[in-house]
Amino acid sequence: MSHRRSTRREFLAAATVTLGSLALPRPALAKGSVTAAMYPGTWEEAFRAHVTPALKAAHDVDLEMTPLFAVDQIAKAQASRGAPPFDAFVLDPGPRVTGIERGLFEKFDAKRLGNLARLPAGMTDEYGVTVAAQVVGIGYNPKKLPKPKSWTDLLKDPWVSRLGMTGFQTTYGTVSIIEIAKQFGGSETNVEPFFVEIKKVLPKVAAIGAPASMPALFQQGQCDITYTNTQTVATLRGRDVDIEFVKPESGAVAFFTTMHITRGSREQENAYKYFDTVISAPVQSALMQPPNNFIPVNREVKLAANLPMASLDEMAKFVKHDWSKINPLRAGWIERFNKEVAK
Amino acid sequence: MTRESEWQLALPLTLAYAAFFLVPLGLLIAVSAFGDDRITTLDGAQWRKFLGDPFTWKVIVDTVKLGGLTVAATSLIGYPLALVYLGAGPRWQRVILFVVILPLLTSVVVRTFAWIVILGREGVINQAVLWLGVSPAPLRLLQTEHGLVIALTQIEMPIMLLPLLSVMSRMDPNLRDASAGLGASKWRTLVRVTLPLSLPGLVAGCMLVFASATTAFISQFVIGGNRLVYLPLIIWQQSLVVYNWPLASVAALTLLVSVGLGVAAIAAVGRRGRAYAV
Q1: Which residue range(s) make up the domain with A178?
Q2: Which CATH code for domain B52-277?
Q3: What is the per-residue pLDDT across A156-190, written as a single tens digit (0 to 9) for each?
Q4: Least enclosed by CB within 10 Å: which of A193, B15, B36, B252?
Q5: Is the pTM of this model over 0.80?
Q6: Residue B116: which of A74, A166, A217 has the nearest Cβ?
């Protein structure tokens, strides 16, 4: 009998403590948080250093990041419909079009961004907001090779025997191959001339690597010329690697990196605050500085001297691509690339 | 606990396997039966497309061959090391065991990228080759099958050695002494006594290495690049780059069957070897 009484007393005491602890004032918590998918590496480090503190200071919102490449974000969001694994995407144009087609984004209201007026026209739409630009061209080692002029130089001597290539798995790889194909009579939807030309020089090509290993292959001297973006070039230069960026004669390629709210996200309000912080002038300016080397989209940011343009308006002159046309063809191109380059 | 209720102890693991292996496997098989990337038409078209392509068969053969070469290299290098372990005193045995386990403490990604530095055009091996005058120009080691096998041999070595050392350390040393005492040469003792007794460990190591090397996507892609195409690369491209999940499922099941057959073949060779020894 006494045993039962003591158990009940213990239970009541425990319940009181538990309920009481819930009612106690908690240490100051943030007004909430937002979970954002983030490119691993440079982007994640730069966002941790600049966006996280800025978002906390401006809106008292904690930024949690899930490191994922663009294609992985789409796959993960698609595999977990109804329970979004993160609140915000950061995407290149190809995966962005896939996300739109597969209905993975919430409708976007650009008017909710305080910094909207500071962006050039066309940087927002009903799906999301542009937060950075990427410029793709040729990166080469000036100590080992003469300066290349055009995309076609990549397939000629002396460059081809030092060329490092990637396939269609990445945005920069895809647009570079399209540009090479164009020089030989191809187009955005016809890369056949590239396959014809690459077949002639394939045994000479120094490296055909995984995208993630390309900076390491360049750094180790496995290849001395490759198609790449300005950010990778700047990052490698920061590590004392001999590399220069060249805009090909036919023009460098530009594409934008955009952010989107995941369909079904419960933190939409905080996602807008996060986007607004990312495009704010102080954050964009900090992201532009080494070792981050982002190309900003906020008009109020004075562009650094090492960027491939003097003003954001010049971006209009760069070569752009329509990914709604490229995406349906990409699977076939990847298959073809495997067959053509595999030994 | 009665003998009849002992099976209940295995229940949590059985349920976990059912939930996290059998159900996903069932889903994989179901998805593979669809013909389009939106998973709407159930016609098995991806199976016909994949298996009807001669390139696929080349990739399957290359994948199995990579596993076979890695098994051969790890066994040839690992077995003598295991014999050294067998003959060493307790202190040296601990040292050898530590050296074997050491690579496992580093992430496979780090080990793989380290191999870029070693095998690269300006890497350690090529510097030595040029210095010794073995070749006038740097050898191409990265993005070649033999370069990949060299790297995988080091990467997979611990999983070959751990089962082998475990079996070796349980071996009764009196049996080898008895063999010598009855007049058998060292070589005969190795072939007729040590090897048959260590065979279960060797077979287990070979199975693990084969399954691991054929599915080692990071090492295959980072060291092999796009010049060497194996089934894991196709699974990655189809599932994560072009989102054709039915085709990715077909490739995944093909890999599962290929690895399963390879492992079964190793087990069969092991059984025959034991029968021969007896």
Answers
A1: 135-253+323-341
A2: 1.10.3720.10
A3: 999 999 999 999 988 999 999 999 999 999 999 99
A4: B15
A5: yes
A6: A217
